[in-house]
Design goal:
Length: 449
Amino acid sequence: MKRPLSLILCCMNLAFQGFATETKPNILYIMADDMGYADAGFNGAKDIKTPHLDRLAKEGAILRSFYVQPVCSPTRASLMTGRYVAHTGVYSIVRPNASWGLPLTEKTLAQAMKNAGYETAISGKWHLGEFQSAYQPTQRGFDHQYGLWFGMIDFYTHKRGKILDWHRNDQPCEDQGYSTHLIAKEACERIRKRDLKKPLFLYLPFNAVHGPLQVPDSYVAPYASLKGNRKTYAGMLSAMDEAIGQIVATLEEQKMRDNTLIVFSSDNGGPSPGKITDNGPLREGKGTIYEGGVRVCAFATWPGKIAAGKIIDHPLHIIDWYPTLIQRAGGSLEQKLPIDGKDIWPVLTAEAKSPHDALLLSSTQPGLAAVRAGDWKLIHRKAATARKKKSPADMPEYELYHLREDLGETKNLAESQPQKVTEMKMLLDQLLHKAVPSADPEPNAKTSE
């Protein structure tokens, strides 16, 4: 029996739609808060156990030279826009009730994923503005929101001072429990209750392991040999690792794991290295643009797409995930504002080198920035505010390091390599050519929370 052409075309169209949905990956971006570079087993941790993170990292590619910004909000702005903070103006931390946030002119990753046909959800810490509803997650592309708007909340009361900072779909929520557990529980529920007609983009920015350092006693018990805050921090990290294991188990339960791209990173380097966190061989930590502040532990895994056991040393930046994820989602990169990030899929899957000639690293301090090009890194302090509390002799205008030979940034080669300084300064100037002023109306306020 002959079937009408219109019926055949309709069936073909439905089949194509189903195929397209199946081949678009689910995407899970997990972000830790204030995690040390060497505090995961896959990056060398000896005294803290992270079995679930280690398993995921082993199944994919470990990113040894993955860069972010030195503090929370700027990194999140770069992930959400694919643009350097020098172009978004989010140089500093967005404090509670501050009259600013990620500029509304910026298109977000969530909006791009939604336009590509994804269901979008955030479970965790936003930290990009909330003082007006237009700045809140559900107005920036997320279909579902759960968790905290600010940072540094009590893990049990979910308050910062006297302000309750726990929300569902941007409305106050009084759920009881330890925040790491609640964030994971919500993520698992979102996976189970997802729209089966759409792929899922789930952004999971934990407020762990940021202070205040709080965790149930059962997580601290295995770390009796550790001292003080390091012991509590280890317990917090174990709780987060356990939570990630629960979420991956839910993906497996729902038969989603094989078609889910999972990315993990910290938002900045660990604070108080050597006391609370461990940044390994990297110099200093959170709040600085030395390697310990801006190079973080990270990996990407997708079974059958990213080879297991891969280690990538090429320098990459969190801005790169914006075009990379949108491209994998079949979305469009056409937009009004230029994208600084590059599609790094060939680096992850085809042995390609970094698509960047140079990477920009911006500080929260005016006049302080760095550029990495190949194995070289130049730090430039061009303003007096970038040398505050120390004399110019103690804080030189230029610092030049060769990272392959000196990962710890111990030997400033600026005086012995003036030609390289000139060359690197030209690259830095090019990257800062269209830099915008801070979007923060009080840019000199405290930024190291």
